[in-house]
Structure formats: structure tokens, C-alpha cells
Write a structure and sequence with these properties.
The chain has 3 helices and 16 strands. It is mainly beta and 266 residues long.
């Protein structure tokens, strides 16, 4: 969802703002607060298909360095023992000739209180869900590609939690397009991604592909409304997922979903 907000911010920068760039401070701090009907991460619900509250604060320097904090409510049914996700990001972004963009960063995802041993069924190990991944990206105008690779086990997936081995080095490749539609204020978003976990779960090798199409619009006062349809194609891995709180409670966490978002920029 942050990508939708960022796309609209970039597409609504006027020529007057560009003209005043030299007079602006080299330091910029921005924030958002959002309400979403479902929090989807790489095509998979993190809220058991329930609503979520989200917020962010980001710092950017004129040199291209940036830092960000983003948080969302989640469900213990997805991450045992945790009801929130907190992402911390550091990196660098640059541009060439106003059309090309590039960058690299590191992001750590925390799930306060989250641990596999807090599941209400089965014998689970003392294993946190937290993970860190590095990423690089390259963009041209409204089109960009990004590659991310985990520096730790992804979500605690390893031989202790039922996988054939470590998922350190799991990679995610994505292509995104955020296309401003003339002077309507609308932004059409297109996304395709591929996650390779680098380890098997039983007989299943979780290579998951996800897709998303979205439409968003900015309004006076810093408001943004968005709608999206997304899904994950690995039904063998994600369909019939059992809740961490009750093994008889199941959900198709990667199924096609229609999601609404309302965001306020600060």
C-alpha cells in the first residue's frame, strides 16, 4: 500500500514545486495514516482477510539517503503471538536526467511478541518470525523493477519449522508500473512478483507468484483513496492455511481479494 501512496505523491508534484526545489530544506519528513480492508503482503493476507490500520514516517535527505518506519496491525492467526508488524528501512535513492531512478536499501521486519512457539497447536520451536532483506531497484519514469534477497531466514522458515533447510537467501523479484492517467488525478497500478523460498515444505517447493492491479486518486487535504485486486497463484502452499490459534480454522490466505484503502498524508 505504501507504493500506491508514493506513486501518487510523485505523480502530483507540480512544476511550481520543482521550481522551488532550490529553496527547500535538504531534509524532508513525511507521514501517512491508512485504513485498509485487508492487509496484503506479496499476495497473502496478514490479517486473515480482516481490516487493518497502518502508518508510516519517512525521512529523506537531498543527497538521496532515506530512512523509514512503517507499521500495521496484523492477526495472530497469521503470525503467532503478534498483533503488529513494524518495518524499518534504510537506503539510498538517486535519479538520472529526471527519468531514470535507482537505489538500494535494507529493511528489517519485526513482529513484536511473534514466535512460532506461541501457536496454540502442535509442538513448535522457539523461533521468531523477524527477518531482514536487502534490495536494489531500477526505474524509468512510471516503470520499475526491484530485487530483494533475505539476509536471514524468511519469517523463521527453516528446518526447525518444517522446511527442508534455511530460507536465508530467499529472493523476491517484482515489476511495477504506476501510470498517471492524464489530468484525472488517477493512478493505475500494475504489479507482478515472484517469491522463491529456496527450501521445500514437505513435497511443496514454495515458489509463489502474485499479481495486483489498482486504481487510486488523490484529493484535496492530502487524502488518497485506492482500490485494488490481488492474488497469489501458489494454491498448494496457501490454500487451506490453518490458523495459529485454532488448527480447525482455515483460510485461503492467497486467494483473489478486492481491497479498499483510505490514506491521509502529512
Amino acid at each position: 500500500m505504501r507504493k500506491l501512496v508514493l506513486a501518487i505523491c510523485l505523480s502530483t508534484i507540480g512544476s511550481g514545486a520543482l521550481a522551488d526545489e532550490a529553496n527547500q530544506s535538504p531534509h524532508q519528513v513525511t507521514g501517512t495514516v491508512s485504513a485498509v480492508s485487508d492487509y496484503i503482503f506479496r499476495g497473502v493476507t496478514q490479517t486473515w482477510h480482516r481490516p487493518a490500520l497502518q502508518g508510516s514516517i519517512d525521512y529523506a535527505h537531498a543527497s538521496g539517503l532515506f530512512a523509514g518506519l512503517w507499521a500495521s496491525t496484523i492477526s495472530e492467526k497469521v503470525v503467532a503471538g503478534a498483533d503488529a508488524e513494524i518495518d524499518l528501512a534504510l537506503g539510498y535513492r538517486g535519479t538520472v536526467n529526471g527519468n531514470w531512478s535507482y537505489g538500494a536499501g535494507v529493511m528489517t521486519v519485526y513482529y513484536p511478541g511473534g514466535n512460532w512457539n506461541r501457536m496454540k497447536w502442535g509442538d513448535k520451536p522457539d523461533q521468531k518470525y523477524d527477518f531482514t532483506e536487502a534490495n536494489v531497484f531500477l526505474g524509468y519514469k512510471w516503470l520499475n523493477a526491484k530485487y530483494a534477497r533475505t539476509l536471514t531466514d524468511l519469517l523463521g522458515f527453516n528446518e526447525n519449522t518444517g522446511f527442508s533447510g534455511s530460507t536465508k537467501g530467499a529472493d523476491y523479484i517484482e515489476i511495477n508500473a504506476d501510470i498517471p492517467l492524464a489530468d484525472t488525478g488517477l493512478v493505475l497500478g500494475l504489479h507482478a512478483g515472484r517469491q522463491d523460498f529456496k527450501a521445500r515444505l514437505g513435497t511443496i517447493k514454495p515458489i509463489a507468484k502474485d499479481y495486483r492491479i489498482s486504481l487510486s486518486k488523490s484529493f484535496a487535504g492530502g487524502w488518497i483513496a485506492a482500490a485494488q485486486v490481488s492474488r497469489n497463484t501458489n494454491i498448494d502452499f496457501f490454500n487451506g492455511t490453518r490458523s495459529n490459534m485454532n488448527e480447525n480454522d482455515t483460510c485461503d490466505v492467497g486467494r483473489r481479494r478486492f481491497v479498499l484503502t483510505l490514506t491521509r498524508l502529512f
